[in-house]
Amino acid sequence: MSRGSLTALGVGAAAAVLATVAGAVMSVATIGMAQDQPRALVARYLTALQHGRAEQAMRIAGIRHSAADILLTDAAYAKAGDRITSFTIARPVTRSGRTTVAATVSLGDRTQHRTFAFERTGGLPGVPLWRMRPVAADTVSFAVHAPDGLTYSIAGIRPKEQTPGAAVTLRALPGSYPVAFSSPSSEYRIWDADVASTPAGRTHTVTFSAQLSSDGDTAARAAVEAWLDACLASTSTAPAGCPFVVDAATDDGAVVGDVH
User: Fold this and answer.
1) Contact (Cβ atoms closer than 8 angstroms) between residue 120 and residue 130
2) What is the pLDDT of residues 158-172, one digit of tens each?
3) Are 50 and 85 contacting, i.e. CB atoms less than 8 angstroms apart?
4) pLDDT given at position 29
5) For the chain, does the N or the C end have fewer beta carbons within 10 angstroms?
6) Secondary structure, 3-state, 169-214
7) Residue 32, pLDDT above cutoff 70
8) Is the CB of residue 84 less than 8 Å from the CB of residue 107?
9) Residues 199 and 100 in one domain
């Protein structure tokens, strides 16, 4: 066999070995990517939230939006504070046929642990394909106790229905949403504040109660003083609506006839 033939055989053998090795490396990489797909999907979802891309995050997580979901928009989420600043994602865990991925997220000064569920959608033995099961949206819940006429907005949006004292629960994405109040009177007000979202199933209702303003405090004191002055000026021994009565009989048995 000529030297040229031997060289050709050697090159062919080397090529075959390289192809086999490359195929093995690609197979291992493919298997690794397939098995790590759940973590990658969770990372995409949390990264979208981290950068304020609410609608992209909802598409990844399978969160459907309705007309009542006034906070599930890019515009509303842009006004949210304490959004996700960092996160860590654990490896997928399968128990009793159920595969989940746990994540720890930081939102401002809060740390939360969240779990994401996955289901197989096909693939080959050892190379599964995964789909994230729909994620339940967070909620914000609050109740406003105030006289009629006081209104509020959340994330710059004014809900159509505003019933004093009734709890309002809205679906939301992780973060804190600003609530601003508008009073028709200078005598009472509610100070603006943020309401933090809570994961699904852990609803916490924040209560906002109207308080007297400085004008209201002055008016209330003046009203009380005028009321007491009117009571003291009455000639009745039991003036109606007053916080005291005058006993008609004294300790020595004398009867008070007239009070002047």
Assistant:
1) yes
2) 998 888 888 999 999
3) yes
4) 41
5) C
6) EEEECCCEEEEEEECCCCCEECCCEEEECECCCCCCEEEEECEECH
7) no
8) yes
9) no
Residue-wise pLDDT for 196-235, tens only, equals 999 988 889 999 999 887 777 777 788 888 888 888 888 7
Does 27 score more than 70 pLDDT? no
Model confidence pTM above 0.85: no
Sequence-ordered list of residues with C-beta below 8 angstroms from that of 43, at least 6 positions apart, any chain: 87, 89
CA gap 192, 153 in Å, rounded: 10
What is the Cα–Cα distance from 153 to 174, expressed in whole angstroms?
Answer: 19
CA distance 220 to 185: 14
Residue 72 in any domain: the answer is yes
Name beta bridge partners: 194.
178
238 versus 15: the higher-pLDDT residue is: 238
Structural domain contains residue 239: no
Best CA proximity match to 142, nearest among 188, 209, 71 = 209
Distance of CA 85 to the CA centre of its chain: 15
Average pLDDT over residues 118-126: 78
Range of the domain at 77: 3-132
User: Which two three-digit tokens encode residue 26?
Assistant: 């690609």
- State residue 216 phi and psi, 5-degree precision: -65, -40
Mean pLDDT on 77-84: 96
Q: Which DSSP letter does residue 82 get?
A: S
Instruction: Answer yes or no: is 147 within a domain.
Output: yes
